[in-house]
Amino acid sequence: MAEVVVSSKYQIVLPAEVRKSLGIKKGQRLHVLVENGSIRLIPSRPLNELRGYLRGMDTNIERDEEERL
Questions:
Q1: Where is the SpoVT-AbrB domain (predicted)?
Q2: What angle do CA 21, 23, 24 make, to 5 degrees?
Q3: Quick check: 24 and 12 in contact, CB under 8 A?
Q4: Tens digits of per-residue pLDDT, 14-28?
């Protein structure tokens, strides 16, 4: 497990192995979520990169009546 140090300006550096495995590039934005006392960094993706992401998804699911519009 990689370890980082928080600087005096509350900054961290993501280890190279983490950046490479997630494909994080210089200047890329990350979303920060706090969940159950943990921090999650989620790479932001432009909308044009997500085009077709849900293609082929099964939309035939049963929903409760209150979930319908």
A1: 1-46
A2: 115
A3: no
A4: 999 999 998 899 999
Take residue 27 and report the two structure tokens written for it: 């200047």
Which of 23-27, 40-44, 53-57 shows the lowest mean pLDDT across its residues? 53-57
Q: Over the Cα atoms of the chain, what is R_g?
A: 18
Q: Measuring CA to CA, which residue among 62, 22, 53, 58 is closest to residue 40?
A: 22
In this prediction, residues 29-56 reach a mean pLDDT of 86
Q: 4 and 13 in contact (C-beta within 8 Å)?
A: yes
DSSP string, 23-66: T--TT--EEEEEETTEEEEEE---GGGGTTTTTT--------GG
Say how far apart CA 13 and CA 23 lie, in whole Å.
15
